[in-house]
Amino acid sequence: MKNNDKNKAYKKDGGRKDSYRPRETRRDFDESENSCEAIYGRNAVLELLKTDRDIDKIFILTGEREGSVKLIESRARERAIPVINAPKEKLDRISNGGVHQGVAAFVSEVQYADVDDIFAVAEERGQAPFIVIADGIEDPHNLGALIRCADAAGAHGIIIPKRRNVAVTATVVKSSAGASGHVKIARVSNIAMTIDALKKRGVWVYGAEAGGEDVYNTDMTGAAAFVFGSEGNGISRLVTDKCDCIVSIPMYGQVNSLNVSCASAVVLCEAARQRKAKQ
Hints:
The protein contains 9 helices and 10 strands. The chain is elongated. It is of the alpha/beta class.
């Protein structure tokens, strides 16, 4: 179910790339799209790191690694907060011309949930956990569509990684058509480790990829999590290896793939149909 097209999450040949461009040359998501507050200045960011606020990312002036800046970087990495090299022009833009001292941070205005909160929703509804996992989705429109599909299918929550995945930005919220306000969204440091934790709690993990079992002939009625990969690379190799089962959508026409938003709609609605039929 993968395709070379930028917005295609699945390629028929199953090929994938596990390497990434260096942090400074990778596409960083436009801060104007983030539903985040900018905090800048060394002391301000250091104080911010002492709080429990959810910090989306920290920008540090390229080459600046002395004194308090080095301390900021160290503390950020301890909390698994992405640290990104940035030119002075970008920091000037983030701070709107203010005195940033080579450091700026984005603090999320979105209230992320914990994975335990997702299980709590399932328990409240008296249902087996139904979870969606995004693995490296970089297009905010695709993430928004995935959240919308998750809500429509009755999923109890969605899990996204802190790195190499778009955060819940204003564009994501808009693309979800309001669903982001109804679905618990947990943001974790490591998807692979989170999958291990889910499996220990009895959750069966399905990866949506090419070359798997026919999704229409696969039992998906128990406690389940469904993994959908990035637009260009699909599910990472490590995460694929963690999945209990790989499911694929049979294609009957000339087009041999669906993009991640369309594929998630098919897989999640089929899972929802099976779950409903078993009740």
